[in-house]
Amino acid sequence: MPVLVIAEHDNATIKGATLNTVTAALACGGDVHVLVAGENAAGAAQAAAQIAGVAKVLHADGAALAHGLAENLSAQVVAVAKDYSHVLFPSTAGGKNVAPRVAALLDVAQISDATKIVSADTFERPFYAGNAIATVQSADPVKVITVRTTGFDAAAATGGSAAIESVPAVADAGLSVYVGSEIAASDRPELTAAKIIVSGGRALGSSDKFNEVLLPLADKLGAALGASRAAVDAGYAPNDWQVGQTGKIVAPQLYIAAGISGAIQHLAGMKDSKVIVAINKDPEAPIFSVADYGLEADLFTAVPELVAAL
Ligand SMILES: Cc1cc2nc3c(=O)[nH]c(=O)nc-3n(C[C@H](O)[C@H](O)[C@H](O)COP(=O)(O)OP(=O)(O)OC[C@H]3O[C@@H](n4cnc5c(N)ncnc54)[C@H](O)[C@@H]3O)c2cc1C
């Protein structure tokens, strides 16, 4: 049976997390189909059809699907799920909002945060903040899986030529209403898609210092900005910058941690980064245990020096 990936998109383009999810789906065996459910989402459906390895795109278009409301989107997924052995979502805020509803409606157990597809029915997933890996086997007829995107390379966004099939859109379930979105505009790369991340901790001391010290470094490197939870809780950085167990899971090419102690909950969100640079004035800080390059220094002098040298 084929495997279904639920696309994350903005009706015009496909979001990067979908590409990693396609790679995970290919490892499940069977053809990979992608569901694009939205309103006026032909652009996203066409983009999905170009993803390498995708055999077919299901395109459901209707007003009820305009804003990805979980109640409607889960009904749409369930409407097509009977034809599939696996239904995969990226383990993003959106995917985690919908997948449990789909699993409940299908009366199966959800497999959360898969980092490896061992075989069609066996998966690996981290727990205890990534300190242990569970091997999970499922006998359910449909496997509903959220995929930790950092565990899988992104499939190529182009090179495929899948057929696009229209499927009937579900009616509005009437259980939720879209009110509005407040989206912070930023020229920076999105945190989970960034190749370089400059992250700051409580040591920064204020949002002004975040801007004054870390922004120039991020600008020089074309990096996204991240933060520890302590920095976010203190109001030095916005919530959507939080990296870690209760924030975003990232694995960029380069992660620079300035004034971050390296608590286990922070490491859980960034320790798979390819190269980790830590700047901390405490030589005993746990961040140095995962760092490829450690600089024992005061960040308020080291970071401006780094910016000047770049
Ligand atoms: C259930 C739960 C979930 C959590 N989830 C997350 C999460 O998702 N993400 C997360 O980050 N945390 C999370 N935490 C919090 C986590 O335990 C830590 O409290 C937090 O990560 C600490 O942030 P920090 O390193 O910025 O601050 P601190 O622990 O206060 O560390 C500051 C560091 O800065 C260094 N420093 C101070 N001044 C300077 C200077 N001038 N120059 C250089 N270095 C300096 C210090 O030596 C220290 O190492 C969670 C906790 C719990 C209980």
TrEMBL record:
Its cofactor is FAD. Binds 1 FAD per dimer. This is Electron transfer flavoprotein subunit alpha. FAD binds at residues 202, 228-229, 242-246, 259-266, 280. One of its GO terms (biological process) is fatty acid beta-oxidation using acyl-CoA dehydrogenase. It comes from Rubrivivax gelatinosus. Belongs to the ETF alpha-subunit/FixB family. InterPro entries: DHS-like_NAD/FAD-binding_dom, ETF_a/b_N, ETF_a/FixB, ETF_alpha_N, ETF_asu_C, ETF_asu_C_CS, Rossmann-like_a/b/a_fold. Pfam families: ETF, ETF_alpha. Heterodimer of an alpha and a beta subunit. Keywords: Electron transport, FAD, Flavoprotein, Transport. The electron transfer flavoprotein serves as a specific electron acceptor for other dehydrogenases. It transfers the electrons to the main respiratory chain via ETF-ubiquinone oxidoreductase (ETF dehydrogenase). Residues 3-182 form the Electron transfer flavoprotein alpha/beta-subunit N-terminal domain. One of its GO terms (molecular function) is electron transfer activity.
